[in-house]
Amino acid sequence: MELIDNEQQRWEEIDAYLRNELTAGQRTAVESRVGNDAAFAADVERIRVAKTAVKEYARHEDMKAIHRKMTSGPKAISGRWTDGVGFYLRIAAIFVVLLAAWATIGITTLSPGSLYADEYSAYSAETIRAESPQLPSTAHRIQVEYLNANYLGVVQLYRQSTAKTVRESFIAGNAYLALGQAANASVCFKKVLLSSASENAFDFYQSSEYYLAWSYLKNNQFKQAMPLFEKIYRNRFHLHNGDVDTWFYWKLKLLQWKQG
Amino acid sequence: MNAGQRYTDHEIIRLIESGNSLEPPVGFLYSEHFENLTHFIRKNSGNRQDAEDVFQETIMVFVDMVQRGKFRGESSIKTFLYAIARNLWLNAMKKRDRMFVRDIEQLNVSDGEAEDLQAAIIRNESKRKVLEFIGQLGETCRKILIHYYYDNLSMKEICERMHYESEQVVRNQKYKCMKKLTEWIESDPSRGILVKELLLYGTD
């Protein structure tokens, strides 16, 4: 123990010498001993070597800390944004984020009203005129008013009509829908569906299913609209099958999921 | 480092030689050359992590050379860093047993500089082995020795900073750590020679 204590004291003296903490007299004494005592000189060298190794280590750690600071964290130098795989991953990440944002906005804002506003397009009566050059007077006038986009005129004539044929009801239904009177439009389209059989006039049957579905949607009656759209989507021979495409159908399914 | 502070090659050398904080000149070297060197490594079959490792070693070799007065200044720092990085990367590829090491473009450094930097790279490799042991001494030993020999703190300051009961406890602990370190150095004659060789050019 005594030996260790002596060595420790000797090493502390050498440390003080190497750190220039000794007085001039003490320093001279140490230097004199280095010249005369080989064991002491070896200790000085030993400590000088170890001390240098420690300093090198600390300097090395400092450099590593600078490296960490410069290559990670807020002050990091970012890589070239077009570098290798990272570039494609970044592009993919941006795409995924945008897609997620778009989907989130889409889901959040999706409603029967928004779907109607985005997807509904009014019925075109051009084909009726071409198919039926000689219509009864009321039906003809209703059709002309519809072609002129005078939907109020159509409704007025329809109300005055005593016959209310399938054709008149179908065009009136579309006029009501164009005016935003979805409940009245539904009544007209349902009348078409019911009367088609009795009048043996199926020309407007499938179109009435389609526009009745829109009327329900406009009137926020999604549960009534969905079966009709689904029926049209699944029947590839339906007149309006092409109007209910897969993309639109998935929007309906999403809305169905959202509405529980 | 002042944000956006720029240095000439001469100023960088002077700052590194001064022995003051390395952060300003080294930080500038990172901001100035890291991206281009990363591109250089990636162009030669490396990835970003390889580039980071090579750049870190490149800077260590360069700083070591400057501090030992071994940087001749015949080439620009940029060219010299590329030359070091090129050598380090070739060595790394060889160690990985790459069947086909691509011929990495030569850089315009003098023969003397090329020899110096090759020697510096070997020295850096040896030094790392010595430093690894200090890293294994344990956190307490590392801290005490670094505070005392590198930060030049007094026993009293170390005692306060590391919350020891008394200065004597620190003295005893430091003695034990130094004993352990010197014994490790002397336990292998070749290791002793290696450390002394490093010491020859050390910045005591």
H/E order of the elements of chain B?
A: HHHHHHHHH
Structural category of chain A: mainly alpha
What's the total helix number of chain B?
A: 9
Shape of chain A: rod-shaped
Total strands of chain A = 0
How much of the sequence lies in strands of chain A comes to under 5%
Going by helix content, strand content and strand pairing, the class of chain B is mainly alpha
Q: How far from one another are the termini of chain A? A: 84 Å
Round the mean pLDDT of chain A to the nearest integer and report it.
84
Description:
The complex is a heterodimer of chains A (260) and B (204). Chain A is mainly α and 260 residues long. Chain A has helices at residues 2-18, 24-36, 38-71, 84-109, 112-119, 126-131, 137-147, 151-160, 166-179, 182-199, 205-218, 222-234, 246-258. In chain A, helix 9 runs antiparallel to helix 10 (182-199). The two termini of chain A are 84 Å apart. With 204 residues, chain B is mainly α. Chain B has nine helices and no strands. Chain B has helices spanning 9-18, 23-43, 48-67, 77-95, 111-135, 139-150, 155-161, 167-186, 189-200. The longest helix of chain B has 25 residues, at 111-135. The model of chain B has no long low-confidence stretch (mean pLDDT 83). At the A-B interface, helix 1 and helix 3 of A face helix 2, helix 3, helix 5, helix 6 and helix 8 of B.
Question: Any descriptors?
Answer:
A: 260 residues, mainly alpha, 13 helices, B: 204 residues, 9 helices
